[in-house]
Amino acid sequence: MKLSAWQGDITKLSVDAIVNAANSSLLGGGGVDGAIHRAAGPDLVHECRLRGGCKVGEAKFTKGYRLPARFIIHTVGPVWNGGGSGESDLLASCYLRSLEIAEMNSLSTIAFPCISTGIYRFPSKVAAEIAYRTVSDYMTNTKHLQKVTFCCFSDGDFQLYQRLLAE
Ligand code: AR6
């Protein structure tokens, strides 16, 4: 399995699935969630409504509709509250549950945004370390996944992931 960092808009990526940093309603919002709903089109919210929401640290699967990606894995990251409320474990769980859904559906390529690091205020460096460690640990378990892309919107995040990938 190959890990890489890419800088830009996740809605442009032609992968089997992109991951959405959603909220527990799954009905859309700002940030990457808003961008994904806009690019996928209005049919997405109809399917999301049928999913009945999603708990923090869990993930749900939908089609990608008008996106170049075939599917969307919606996960709900923790809101950063100082770090003493299980935020790190919940963030790791977002990555793990998303990878498990991808694997269960025999997907080979998936792209993650930097979950929780925008509106939910999770510190970027700690978040990148958790994301990188969880995904690389999962590498030993996977039958189908071949490529995982860390999609970074900011220069700072892109540099963080490049550094982690070069270690
Ligand atoms: N492509 C890739 N990454 C993006 C894009 C994009 N088009 N747009 C923003 N990012 P955020 P959160 C980056 O705030 O912190 C929503 O309202 C952004 O720079 O989207 O998990 C949901 O509905 C940051 O690095 O998600 C929830 O209510 C990362 O995506 C809440 O925000 C995550 O930032 C979730 O907050």
TrEMBL record:
Chain ranges of the Macro domain: 1-167
Coiled coil residues, start to end: none
InterPro entries xrefs: Macro_dom (IPR002589), Macro_dom-like (IPR043472)
CDD domains: Macro_OAADPr_deacetylase (cd02908)
Recorded GO MF terms: O-acetyl-ADP-ribose deacetylase activity
The protein, known as: O-acetyl-ADP-ribose deacetylase
Source organism per UniProt: Phragmitibacter flavus
Higher taxonomy: Bacteria, Pseudomonadati, Verrucomicrobiota, Verrucomicrobiia, Verrucomicrobiales
